[in-house]
TrEMBL record, chains A, B:
GO molecular function terms noted in the UniProt entry: DNA-binding transcription factor activity; transcription cis-regulatory region binding
PANTHER family in the cross-refs: HTH-TYPE TRANSCRIPTIONAL REGULATOR RUTR (PTHR30055), TRANSCRIPTIONAL REGULATORY PROTEIN (PTHR30055:SF235)
Annotated organism of origin: Asanoa ishikariensis
Pfam families xrefs: TetR_C_16 (PF17920), TetR_N (PF00440)
UniProt keywords, alphabetically: DNA-binding
Protein name: Transcriptional regulator, TetR family
Known DNA-binding region: 35-54
Amino acid sequence: MVRRTGRRPGNPDTRDAILATARTAFAEKGYDGASIRHIATGAGVDPALVHHYFGTKDKLFLAAMNAPLDPGELIPEVLAGDQDAIGERLVRFFLSIWDSPAGKAGVAMLRSAVSSEWTAKLFREFVVSQVLRRVRQLVPMPPAEAPMRVSLVASQLAGLAMARYVIKIEPLASASPEVLVAAIGPTIQRYVFGDLSGVWASPPPPDTAG
Amino acid sequence: MVRRTGRRPGNPDTRDAILATARTAFAEKGYDGASIRHIATGAGVDPALVHHYFGTKDKLFLAAMNAPLDPGELIPEVLAGDQDAIGERLVRFFLSIWDSPAGKAGVAMLRSAVSSEWTAKLFREFVVSQVLRRVRQLVPMPPAEAPMRVSLVASQLAGLAMARYVIKIEPLASASPEVLVAAIGPTIQRYVFGDLSGVWASPPPPDTAG
């Protein structure tokens, strides 16, 4: 059993205790509801120590998820440039990450996400706060449409990761990245900027995407 | 420990032993390589008993996967009719299954599929032999293109299941089926019948989809 109080700052278990408490907080309160102050209290340490170890709340979340990369650094690069090719760029970027050594950590994150309701909630908070929210902020979409558009993008990219890296359905699993950019890029482009008038024909559900 | 020999036909463990042996056979040898005769030998029973309990190899596979429905019965219905609306029909059908009580078994199958390499392989054999192969047989696609086209369909539908039922990304998770039919139907239609000339520009990989 892990003791949660009376740790010395140099105790190597302190870092793990903070990360475990952070995972609980992000899953139970969500990204917006979780605070470094509460996480520090839960782990029995001073908030200054959490800042010292991890920096910002975003960086703490990345560490808690064992994320191999920081979406906050990569997403602005991918989204900059020609908006007519944003779908192709997103697919090419997504595949370059998953085909790299970081892809192993991605599969591990996906396996963990699917293993229980609790881990799925934690993963959802991560994807929404670290990826989808940033895409919504950086891509000029009508605000009422943006939550549905980015969740559609997420559905196709999650399925690409599942089909290629987890279930490994051929010939998609062995296809070259450029084949998949040509196949799936237009799907993403339509979800981001295309005519989805049939979707807006029914009133959109309330924005709960955070 | 489960004894594999000397069972009486009426032994309730016999059924479980056959199913466990079948899972191993389907994962290790694939659908085509697994035979009822070998599975019976592995479980220490007569092949006639396997046929008596489960019927065909397809039905044995369904039982081994705890599949809530038989894709072999449902797929021909869904694929019959107007080919210009096949994308919408597939999405509507997919959502009607996952939104029904059978959806819980679907989530359980997906969780299990993702949990290890072995279960992923078993799930892949199931999806390819019970779903994708039938779609390829029933939908008039050029044979050289069909494997990539159906694996693209599988990627979007797997991602829809992940985003809506496992990770639960809003507003997609709470959207009405018809909203998602309007959003994702055209994606599936393009994957099945649309112009994917950019995909065929590079030579397609060898057909390994079974």
